[in-house]
Amino acid sequence: ERHAARRAAPRGAARCAPGHEIVLAETPECGPFAGWSGGCHGNASCSVLMDANRTVTALFATVAPTGQVLWARAFAGTEWSMGIAIAFAADGNVFLTGAFDGALDMDGTTLTTSSSVYVTAEGFAAKLSAACNALWSFDFGGEASDWPVELGTDAGGDFFLMGHLGSFYDGDGLHRGGPFLARFRSFDGQPLWTRDLLETGIESGHMAVDASGGVFVAGQHCRPTDLYSISTFDVSRYSADDGDVIWWRRLEDMCPVVNDVDVDVSGNGIVAGEFDGSLDLGSGPLRTLESVGTG
After folding, report:
1. Which of 73, 127, 144, 148 could anchor a disulfide with 97, C-beta 3.0 to 4.6 Å?
2. Number of C-alpha atoms within 13 angstroms, CB side, residue 232?
3. What is the mean pLDDT of residues 41-53?
């Protein structure tokens, strides 16, 4: 079960005389009322004594406790479209990213792919309200196919997007794309900053946003040699304020692959992946098991 947090009525901030008692009522827009948090608890009516600054949140379920779907949306496209990642904001709104070809109707806003012959897919991002409507949307991409990879949100409601811009070859040579990390404003989707992850050697990977707004990114980069390819395993943390690299670490191995990244409650990054041979993360080498046939 997932609950979307939503402020109870009256919405926003209000000034009350000290000692005044107010009564709040839940007003669901999408999904049943699931209870209070903050200055009230449980499912009964909420009365708050204003003897200090108080914050109260009403919770509304978008999926019933039985697993029944309470609402679903489909956005029509002229060719094909797919959702890739989703993230919930603290105010109950939903961020969605995916890819499409042709044209995609996002509640009256039509997104279109580039006319370049090298484009077979373009990325999009959108913000949906708890009432299931698209608040804003945009597409991103260039002269080649572009894909989002992952979404994350911070405590202030802004969202972070990790994706990959495609490469293409024409008469002028190879036009190289690569992975990127970007932060966007929650209320209108305007970009705050964008970073090229190839600066830290990452070709593909995953990301997670910690409680303080920092962004952990882990991935790999393949470097060919005369006999074989060596992949580097890179982990870095970016500042949420401006996207600058706070720290960066590289480990070399035959072929490590990052499958997922997360952050625990203490702000420590957690990386899950796979490797072949041996890999030393700082506490001693990890080794794969070797199997020898008997003939």
Report:
1. 148
2. 16
3. 76
